[in-house]
Amino acid sequence: MWHHFNYERAAEMRSKYIPIEKVLSILDLTATDVIMDVGGGDGFYSNLFSEKCSKVYYVDASNSAVDMVKDKLSGKKGKVEIIQDDICTMKLPKELTKVFFSNSFHDLGCRETLIDRIVGNSSGTVKFILIEFKKDATIGPPESVKIHPDELDSLFKRHGYVLERREFLAEHYVSSYGR
């Protein structure tokens, strides 16, 4: 887990390496979607999602991230719920239709149980969309922390999910899983 996260650097890398329109295309957000942005960081995606979805749950365990986002998303009350908690143990919303991870899934020690908890807690079908670093990416965490796409596919397959779409970017890949 990263302890001293540089949100300005992350924003710079996101704008340089992640084509937002491609991510939005993969997400295929609708006005009825309820999405959870796990490890929401600087709130960039939660802010973007709030323009397209009925509800956004921003979740981050970091005090500094949540403090920054409270100001940034203060005008989104009712559309964005800001939650400072550990995604591995927190009470999960029931009405989720999509769960989004941007470079955060690889940091979680509860990957298997989290998928089970989200699916078991949800009142409907949930899609998972993840942005992760390629194993050979020149940025991001050490290679040993990065998740190979095949490993991600196997993990979701064990939980009854299939890969619906994958796009390879310069330093990342984006995967969408559904049932």
Put the structure in a nutshell.
By secondary structure, the chain is of the alpha/beta class.
For the largest beta-sheet, the strand count, sense and barrel status come to: 7 strands, mixed
CATH superfamily: Vaccinia Virus protein VP39
**What's the structural domain tally?**
1
Q: What's the end-to-end separation, in Å?
A: 30 Å
Structural class: alpha/beta
Mean pLDDT: 95
What series of H and E elements makes up the topology? Answer: HHEHEHEEHEHEE
Query: Given the structure, what is the number of helices?
Result: 6
Keyword list:
179 residues; alpha/beta; Rossmann fold; seven-stranded mixed beta sheet
Question: Could you describe the 3D structure shown?
Answer:
- By secondary structure, the protein is α/β, with parallel strands linked by helices.
- The protein has one domain: Rossmann fold, CATH 3.40.50.
- Helix content is 31%, strand content 23%.
- It is built from six helices and seven strands; from the N terminus they run H-H-E-H-E-H-E-E-H-E-H-E-E.
- The chain has a seven-stranded mixed beta sheet with strand order 3-2-1-4-5-7-6, sandwiched between helices.
- A hairpin with a 3-residue loop joins strand 6 and strand 7.
- The longest helix has 11 residues.
- It is globular.
